Amino acid sequence: MLAERNSLAAIHRIKGIKEEAVMDCLLEAANHVEEIEALLLANHHLTRVQLDAMWTYAVIKGKKWPSRRT
User: Fold this and answer.
1) Strands (DSSP E) along 2-58, which ranges?
2) CB 40 within 8 Å of CB 46
3) Nearest 5°: phi and psi at 48?
4) Average pLDDT for runs of 10 along the chain of length 70
5) pLDDT given for residue 3 in this prediction
């Protein structure tokens, strides 16, 4: 929902999830991304430009998949 530019307050109203819980999930996801990037940089000798292109590709592909209903 954040990717669709909904605010934390909007997510709270729509889903009934506390804003703090959403922020905790975002921080955990950011930590995972940092770990993934560190591994890719170390083990596959990718450049930052290549990583950026990979994430851009993943986002574009993700938008083409049908959304999951929860």
Assistant:
1) none
2) yes
3) -60, -35
4) 78 87 88 89 87 85 63
5) 66
Taking the C-alpha atoms of residue 27 and residue 48, their distance in angstroms, rounded to an integer, is 21
Q: Tell me how far apart the alpha carbons of residues 30 and 23 are, in angstroms, rounded to a whole number.
A: 10
Which amino acid does the sequence have at 28?
Answer: E
Phi, psi of 27 (to 5 degrees): -65, -40
pLDDT at 9: 86
pTM as predicted: 0.59
Q: Which two tokens stand for residue 64?
A: 């083409």
Token pair for 32 = 């995972």
DSSP state of 65: S
Amino acid occupying residue 10: A
